[in-house]
Amino acid sequence: MGLYHLAIGLVSLLSMVSGAMTIGANWGTQASHPLPPETVVRLLRENGIQKVKLFDADYDTLKVLGKTGIEVMVGIPNDLLASLAGSMKAAERWVSKNVSAHVTNNNVNIRYVAVGNEPFLQTYNGSFLRTTFPALQNVQSALIKAGLGNLIKVTVPLNADVYESSSGLPSGGDFRADIHDLMLTIVKFLNDAGAPFTVNIYPFISLYIDSNFPVEYAFFDGNANPVNDGGTSYYNMFDANYDTLVNALQKNGFGNLPIIVGEIGWPTDGDRNANIEYARRFNQGFMSHIASGKGTPMRPNAGINAYLFSLIDEDAKSIDPGNFERHWGIFTFDGIPKYSLNLGTTNTGALIPARNVHYLERKWCVMKPSAKLDDPQVAPSVSYACGLADCTSLGYGTSCGNLDARENISYAFNSYFQIQNQLGDACKFPNLSTITRTDPSTSTCRFEIMIEPYYGGAGQTFGYGKKVAFGGLIALFFLMIV
């Protein structure tokens, strides 16, 4: 194990010396038909993605990451925080099973353990306020006891709503009043442990919540009117948001604490502002921004360490925050690139699709030509299908928003049929449905054929999800633009 640690350390050192910019990706698994882990790891490697952030510690996922050199942030779901906070032995068992075993036996390059996921969201009503820090302490102690304290660092991925600005400008940044003392305790702990502060930043959410948000300020093209903060100009929301955190840290005596952007991205469907063009523009702009090495005004010339959200669409995520929630991937559920995106990691300058993906038969469930739109069974049938499938691509401003009534019904039926693995009984809506082998897709709307189900894992963890909660930052930085 010593030689392995030395090799990983040399790789990291060379990366820092060369100034090489690497991009990470969040790999979520809340999908009805997830791609096999081996397929995803090949996708990561062929696209030159050298860092991955996980939301749990699934054995199969971690095992296939072994010997790849891909840097891993392994996650602890929020529902485990109480047990890890209340028992040092529980923390030691978790680390032994989910970290030590993989590092020692499988040569998995685990560098971080994410303790919880956005546990201080205001929408959680304080559920994890008392357990997050004790869990963080216990996991850190367990890593040290296992001899991994120097190699692997703990962190807590937090939503940008943990800080706010009294002035509406980055210079006024400080931690949220109701959790200020707790945040300082955590920040001091991270600083003492040589661990990073991890934050998730989403300009899209601000646009989604507030229709008056200036669209151009979400992007990196320099087209927005800059915000002037005491002589410092901010040309995009990311820099302003990031520097609000930098100011909050600096104001409390931790100005040099490393920052990781745990999640950043743009969805492609499920809302009028969630589309392919905006997603390409945002993600490509962000990649160019961090590749430039310019940093932000508060941390000029400092590299930005970030994980795109996300790698692949997840059709089983909660849509409580919005229908866009299932469409954050730069790849579709089956590993097809959604748009042209140059990560600066491949010879072609484009995303490379997943290989050897196995699909179900080429057949779809659609509305019968003879069925009537005014049939009283239509409404309950569509409601049933959408309730158990994924109809988030239907609606105003979405990729399938231009379908007519019959096509809408067919889309709902087919989504249910595919998620049910094309079982014959799944296309037996009373006198309404039939199976066809003619692709009903349109130029903008894809009627999916599902991939073959993957049964290799011991079960998926459905413990994370984006929540629309930017607190005081929802309206931050843009009121002064207009």
UniProtKB/TrEMBL annotation:
This is glucan endo-1,3-beta-D-glucosidase. One of its GO terms (cellular component) is plasma membrane. It holds the Pfam family X8. Belongs to the glycosyl hydrolase 17 family. Its EC number is 3.2.1.39. Residues 1-19 form the signal peptide. Keywords: Cell membrane, Disulfide bond, Glycoprotein, Glycosidase, GPI-anchor, Hydrolase, Lipoprotein, Membrane, Plant defense, Signal. GO terms for molecular function: glucan endo-1,3-beta-D-glucosidase activity. It is a lipid-anchor; GPI-anchor. It is found in: Cell membrane.
